[in-house]
Design a protein that fits this description.
Layout lengths: L2 E4 L8 H6 L2 E4 L13 H14 L8 H10 L5 E6 L2 E8 L4 E2 L4 E2 L2 E2 L2 E9 L9 H8 L5 E4 L2 H12 L1
Parallel strand pairs: 1-3
Antiparallel strand pairs: 1-9, 2-8, 3-4, 4-8, 5-8, 6-7
Helix pairs in contact: 2-3
């Protein structure tokens, strides 16, 4: 089991949609399924050319995209985080899918993984500054939490 921090929009504004629709979702890329790419480098080249074509800078790393597709696995934990608070923790319950129906407030989140979420009350869940730093740096869409103390703190948030 691995533990991942995932963002639900630039300011986690879509976190309630993730919970209600029981998904973890990955946006910022609407050029088809990640299954179309055999390697991380192939996906990188496509993402780079897409960003140039659209004349915009992609804030999403090809490594994050590839990890969402290949590294996240059934049984892994997802942590929805916003500004010093864990909003929800979920267990990934299914494989990667590409679903063009996932669009909220005009933002596309076509890359999904079924996830069963547990909502936490941030007011009652104080988290350590170390965990805040682990969840907020780097400010990305997806990254693995691999510090053992942080993982224990996340598990305690679920259990107690």
């Amino acid at each position: 089991m691995r533990v991942w921090k995932i963002s639900a929009g630039a300011r986690s504004e879509h976190w309630k949609k993730f919970v209600a629709e029981e998904v973890s979702a990955f946006g910022a890329w609407d050029e088809g399924s990640f299954r179309n790419y055999k390697t991380r480098e192939e996906l990188f080249e496509k993402m780079k050319s897409y960003s140039l074509k659209e004349r915009r800078k992609s804030t999403t790393s090809h490594v994050e995209a590839w990890n969402f597709y290949k590294a996240v696995d059934i049984g892994d934990l997802m942590v929805l985080y916003r500004k010093g608070a864990i909003l929800a923790i979920g267990v990934v319950t299914g494989d990667y899918d590409y679903d063009e129906s996932k669009s909220w407030s005009g933002e596309r989140y076509f890359h999904v993984r079924p996830t069963k979420w547990k909502i936490l009350d941030p007011a009652n869940r104080k988290i350590s500054q170390h965990l805040v730093k682990s969840l907020s740096i780097p400010p990305d869409t997806l990254h693995e939490i691999d510090n053992k103390e942080d993982i224990v703190e996340i598990l305690r948030a679920i259990l107690f």
